[in-house]
Amino acid sequence: MAFRERGRPSSLVAWAAALLLALGVERALALPEVQKQLRSLAEAELLICIQCPGSVQNLSEVALYCKQTPGLMLHARCCLNQKGTILGLDLQNCSLKDPGPHFPQAHTAIIIDLQVNPLKDDLAGTFRGFTQLQTLILPQDVSCPGGINAWDTVTFYTNNQTCQGQRNLCNSTGDPEMCPENGSCEPDGPGLLQCVCADGFHGYKCMRQGSFPLLMFFGILGSTTLSISILLWGTQRRKAKAS
Ligand SMILES: *[C@@H]1O[C@H](CO)[C@@H](O)[C@H](O)[C@H]1NC(C)=O
Ligand SMILES: *[C@@H]1O[C@H](CO)[C@@H](O)[C@H](O)[C@H]1NC(C)=O
Ligand SMILES: *[C@@H]1O[C@H](CO)[C@@H](O)[C@H](O)[C@H]1NC(C)=O
Ligand SMILES: *[C@@H]1O[C@H](CO)[C@@H](O)[C@H](O)[C@H]1NC(C)=O
Ligand SMILES: *[C@@H]1O[C@H](CO)[C@@H](O)[C@H](O)[C@H]1NC(C)=O
Q: What are the record's GO terms for cellular component (predicted)?
């Protein structure tokens, strides 16, 4: 490995490194603890679920959906499947002016409740990538993202409105010219589309032929990540030993 200690490497350093490595391995073998850490790490990643205090409201549509569908569980403000994917999100009554920076974590959600929030009526772009979303509950004064044509039904109630059934606009716009010759139209959230290049094409308007050098890209990315991880691990170990 291309890491060199500052100054002359001594056998003492090598010995210490071996000891640290051994301690690390021993620690890693304490499986329940590792599993617990992994689980809290996974839950910590779902920041959108805990950014607003409390849990999914008992009688909300999100709670109903989560209880009716087998294999789903509630976690703070979210409804998750067994892999930890967000399928429901209940952020009602959270004093939100906008959904916040963690909102894209919920792009897999099927149902989202944002009612009783002082949201600004400008959710354009907020739901980019939310292709699974089928039910969205909003304060009454906020329009359904993508407009009325992006949904099968929009229903107004006294205190909220629901946007139901996301439409696939790739069909209804009926504009075959919209995507270039070697690309195809795919939905990208309510009222949003994207052009996906056919196999073997990439770049602007899918005009460049030849596959993107993915292997090289991920090869470089992977080895950089690995190096940084090892470096961080090393410094953490040293800090832990010093204290
Ligand atoms: C929510 O429902 C559960 C049972 O389904 C009940 O134990 C709990 O007290 C309820 N919480 C509230 C705040 O109503
Ligand atoms: C919103 O939360 C506040 C404080 O928790 C509560 O008093 C109020 O009744 C809630 N409003 C609705 C509509 O749930
Ligand atoms: C919308 O508000 C009405 C009251 O106007 C309430 O009865 C209904 O449960 C709310 N809908 C949802 C989906 O929470
Ligand atoms: C879109 O059109 C294709 C064929 O043109 C059809 O197979 C597909 O079901 C349509 N999708 C929707 C959501 O209407
Ligand atoms: C699309 O691909 C075909 C070959 O499959 C090629 O002849 C054509 O020039 C491509 N079109 C564009 C706009 O790049």
A: lysosomal membrane; nuclear envelope; perinuclear region of cytoplasm
Of 207 and 41, the one with more pLDDT = 207
Same domain for 202 and 125? no
Q: What is the pLDDT of residues 213-225, one digit of tens each?
A: 555 555 656 666 6
Give the chain's domain count.
2
For ligand 5, whether the C-beta of 132 sits within 6 Å is no
Q: How far is CA 217 from CA 1, 102, 206, 208, 224, in A?
A: 21, 27, 19, 17, 11
Same domain, 60 and 163: yes
Cα 207 to ligand 5 centre (Å): 7
Q: What residue owns the CA closest to ligand 4's atom 2?
A: 171
Please state the length of the chain: 243
If we measure between CA atoms, which residue out of 63, 97, 64 comes closest to residue 77? 63
Q: Is 158's C-beta closer than 6 angstroms to any atom of ligand 3?
A: yes
Look at ligand 5, atom 2, and give the residue with the nearest C-alpha.
Answer: 182
